[in-house]
Amino acid sequence: MKYLRGFAQLVEFEIRRFRWVMAALMLATALLQLGWLAFLLRRETAYIRRMRLHRGDGGSFDDTFSLTDMLYEMRYWIALSVLICAVVVALYLLMIWYRDWFGKDAPIYRLLMLPQPRNLLYLAKGVAVLLAVFGLCSWQLVLIVLDGVLYQTLVPADMRETIEWRSVLRANPVWTVVLPRRADQFAGSYAMGIVGVAAVFTAVLIERSVRGVRGLLGGIGYFAASALAVFVPLAFFSGYSPASPLYPEEWLAITFADAAAVLIVSLALGFRLLNKHIQV
């Protein structure tokens, strides 16, 4: 129970350090998506009004439009906002460790001296990153709902079409990656994300344990080997050919087996480095 309380405090500590970055990402995403959607909605309604004045009510042109149409038209803006979040989170995978060494007062030394297993520090940072990712995904769902509210608010009833949420979610290919519709796809995608987080964390600890050029090359080499172990069989599965020596299900099984092995090795090696090789 004592260690559980300490783990929760470490997770809270990491989340508090990231809260302003999260707030900035959420604000930037909202401004990009809602702001551009409002611009498109006003432009489209103004165009339809001009066409009605020119041709008169009941003209032959299509004087309604759907939310799906607008979201598809702004798909690149949505992709840009998601890409910004992904890049920032990827960079934070490194910052979450290096700020402890190079930040003000080097808090890593106090964290390592806490009266609890050092493994909890590794796990707490990983959980904090995952909570940040799930928080941003949840925020994207909220923004999709707000898109619908904005559509119903700015578009007159005689220009609107019924919102079909399934088609809305399919309007942007990025959403199918970030928010998979099927439970198995969601679990598989984010399980791979967890493996990636563990590989990056362990690569950082390799660099911090050895230091210098050797440590840097060791960390990069470990991450590259981990990525190849997972993505080579995944590439064979995605680009399956009848000439392949294995069936798609077998390639998929190899991919998950390799991912599980990378996760186990990353955790075991990371815990050992944190406990045995990184000194206060």
Can you characterise this structure?
This protein has 280 residues and is mostly helical. It has helices spanning 2-55, 67-73, 75-102, 108-112, 119-154, 165-169, 173-178, 183-210, 212-238, 248-277. It has ten helices and no strands. It is elongated, with a radius of gyration of 24 Å. The two termini are 26 Å apart. The model has no long low-confidence stretch (mean pLDDT 85).
Note the topology.
Blueprint: H1 2-55, H2 67-73, H3 75-102, H4 108-112, H5 119-154, H6 165-169, H7 173-178, H8 183-210, H9 212-238, H10 248-277
Short description:
The protein is mainly α and 280 residues long. The protein has helices spanning 2-55, 67-73, 75-102, 108-112, 119-154, 165-169, 173-178, 183-210, 212-238, 248-277. It is elongated.
The gyration radius over C-alpha positions equals: 24 Å
Q: What sequence of helices (H) and strands (E) makes up the elements? A: HHHHHHHHHH
> Structural class, please?
mainly alpha
- Quaternary structure state of the chains depicted: single chain
Number of helices: 10
- Strand proportion, as a percent range, falls in under 5%
Morphology? elongated
Average pLDDT works out at: 85
Low-pLDDT residue spans: none
Q: Specify the biggest β-sheet.
A: none
What level of helicity do the residues show?
over 70%
User: What gap, in angstroms, lies between the N and C termini?
Assistant: 26 Å
Number of strands: 0
